[in-house]
From TrEMBL:
<dbReference type="GO" id="GO:0030177">
    <property type="term" value="P:positive regulation of Wnt signaling pathway"/>
</dbReference>
<dbReference type="InterPro" id="IPR000591">
    <property type="entry name" value="DEP_dom"/>
</dbReference>
<dbReference type="InterPro" id="IPR036388">
    <property type="entry name" value="WH-like_DNA-bd_sf"/>
</dbReference>
<protein>
    <recommendedName>
        <fullName>DEP domain-containing protein 1B</fullName>
    </recommendedName>
</protein>
<keyword id="KW-0343">GTPase activation</keyword>
<feature type="domain" description="Rho-GAP">
    <location>
        <begin position="201"/>
        <end position="393"/>
    </location>
</feature>
<dbReference type="Pfam" id="PF00610">
    <property type="entry name" value="DEP"/>
</dbReference>
<dbReference type="InterPro" id="IPR036390">
    <property type="entry name" value="WH_DNA-bd_sf"/>
</dbReference>
<dbReference type="Pfam" id="PF00620">
    <property type="entry name" value="RhoGAP"/>
</dbReference>
<dbReference type="InterPro" id="IPR000198">
    <property type="entry name" value="RhoGAP_dom"/>
</dbReference>
<dbReference type="GO" id="GO:0035556">
    <property type="term" value="P:intracellular signal transduction"/>
</dbReference>
<dbReference type="GO" id="GO:0005096">
    <property type="term" value="F:GTPase activator activity"/>
</dbReference>
<dbReference type="InterPro" id="IPR008936">
    <property type="entry name" value="Rho_GTPase_activation_prot"/>
</dbReference>
Length: 529
């Protein structure tokens, strides 16, 4: 049985819970069974329920084939506790469901969970400095303003396409951005991008933005080593050396550098158990209770691989640096263990990958109030993290560069024109649509012909420059803008009007004046001495 993916949005875990209940009630075969010489109509065996629900979850895109039979039994225990099912005597409320032959049935109506009321956290309004307000002690009246009037020759030398007077303007120096301002900008733009990727109208119902620490985002972006692992300023929050050595031992098996590998069999299982016990005793999961909803929401994007990667990249930036570092080290170790063929099996009955996911899912993602689908949702997320940890736990370069460019823009001087209230360096967003090449060429020509024609006319009618300079400039203009030039001078005659021919006087014939009359040449004889 295949169903559609429950997309991102508020209360996704509740929507999934209700959907699984409805699918299970609709798909579970009911028939007559006998127990202790008595017949019971419309019921099913516990083992039959496990078979049916396990197949249903495996074919469901929201969970997938990695769901184990043991996880299915745990979910049926929650069904029994929440009166989704009951035994044939009507008893429910305890998690004593077992994968055996006991008989169960559906109550007249399985209770669906109501959607929680909208949290009244409100939207957080991030206040930025008032860029129009001058610095203390700075008067805008004394800011020098350069005259905007230029002549045609200056325009020509600067290859301008427009002439005339430029409106008077003044420079307004913005306040310096403090570190707090920069961090708030990082938070605001990061939240905006996350909302865009998730496709939500608001993040209010999946994330309380007041709990997002802007310093964490900034530190997770910049305080990283060559391998992309977060470096902590407070060394007391680092993982203990002995647990780091144990993780390196399994991650690099059989090349253990930090530990001297004992010779006894089962050593790797003892190391694995030690790591599981350490992370199992932490009070809060690495993804924190506050961000549970946002990570469950991201699970709705797993069909769109690139969007899921980007959403998880941004979501992991919100974590405290110490949590992000532990997550990076743990997931990297889990991935290496899962794909390491040289590592002996860590369990006789369970595959290494399944064992790793089950062992660490709860310490990575779980809710504070223990949701009924916690284990299945956490397993789905952890599996995706293991397969894509290098991309997900790296710094998103596109987001980083866009925020850096925006911060640089905010440092620039603002230009105010007379009668204008807009910021010349911060243009409002514009929207465009694709046009054909012919239309583009037409718009380009039409938009630039008027100022170019005005510039050409001024060059042609300028009487202050010499004829030689005028011809030179006209020739250069004709070479650069032949279409505009042809409109003004369609024929050589129209161009010749600018340079009327002067009446030329014939120069007088040159006469050679000989001082002496012409004498014939006489050959002389030379004598050798």
């Amino acid at each position: 049985m295949e169903v559609g993916l429950v997309g991102p949005g508020p209360y996704r875990a509740t929507r999934l819970w209700n959907e699984i209940i409805e699918l299970f009630r609709a798909g579970m075969p009911l028939r007559k069974h006998r127990c202790r010489f008595k017949s019971y109509e419309c019921c099913f065996k516990a083992s039959e329920a496990v078979d049916c629900l396990h197949e249903l979850l495996g074919s469901n895109q929201n969970f997938g084939p990695e769901v184990t039979r043991n996880q299915t039994v745990k979910l049926l225990k929650k069904f029994l506790k929440n009166h989704v099912i009951e035994d044939i005597k009507g008893r429910w409320g305890k998690e004593d469901f077992q994968d055996d032959g006991h008989l169960y049935r559906f109550p007249p109506s399985s209770p669906l969970k109501p959607y929680p009321k909208k949290r009244s956290c409100g939207k957080e309004v991030i206040k930025f400095p008032d860029w129009n307000e001058p610095k203390a002690g700075t008067s805008q009246e004394h800011i020098p303003v350069k005259s905007g009037t230029t002549n045609s020759e200056m325009w020509y030398k600067r290859h301008s396409i427009a002439i005339g007077e430029v409106p008077a303007c003044k420079l307004v120096f913005r306040r310096e951005l403090t570190q707090t301002n920069i961090e708030e900008i990082w938070k605001s733009m990061t939240m905006s991008q996350l909302q865009k990727v998730l496709g939500l109208d608001s993040l209010d119902e999946v994330l309380d933005t007041k709990l997002v620490n802007s310093k964490h985002i900034f530190q997770n972006m910049y305080n990283v080593n060559k391998q992309g692992i977060v470096t902590l300023e407070d060394k007391s929050k680092e993982l203990p050396h002995w647990i780091l050595s144990a993780m390196k031992c399994l991650a690099n098996w059989p090349s253990c550098s930090d530990l001297k590998q004992p010779a006894y069999s089962g050593f790797e299982r003892d190391v694995f158990t030690t790591i599981v016990d350490y992370f199992g005793q932490i009070k809060e999961p690495l993804l924190t209770f506050h961000f549970y909803d946002i990570f469950v929401c991201v699970l709705g994007l797993l069909q769109n691989h690139s969007k899921a990667i980007e959403a998880l990249q941004i979501s992991c930036l919100l974590l405290p640096p110490e949590n992000r570092k532990r997550l990076q080290l743990l997931v990297r170790m889990m991935a290496r263990i899962s794909f390491n063929k040289d590592l002996p099996p860590l369990s006789e009955s369970v595959k290494t990958r399944t064992l790793v996911v089950q062992a660490f899912s709860r310490c990575i993602l779980c809710s504070k109030d223990e949701m009924d689908l916690d284990e299945l949702l956490a397993a789905k997320l952890v599996s995706f993290l293991m397969d894509n940890y290098q991309e997900i736990l790296s710094v998103p370069s596109s987001l980083k560069s866009s925020i850096e460019e925006h911060v640089i823009h905010l440092h620039r001087v603002q230009i105010k024109y007379a009668g204008a209230d807009t910021d010349a360096t911060f243009l409002p967003p514009s929207f465009c649509h694709q046009i054909s090449t012919d239309e583009f060429e037409h718009q380009r020509a039409a938009g630039s012909q008027e100022p170019l024609a005005a510039l050409l006319e001024e060059i042609a009618m300028n009487k202050e420059i010499s004829v030689k300079d005028k011809k030179k400039k006209l020739k250069q203009f004709q070479k650069s803008y032949p279409e505009v030039y042809k409109v003004r001078f369609p024929t050589p005659e129209t161009e010749a009007v600018l340079f009327p021919e002067k009446t030329k006087q014939k120069p007088p014939l040159l006469t050679w004046v000989l001082k002496k009359p012409f004498q014939p040449f006489h050959r002389t004889r030379s004598f050798r001495m």
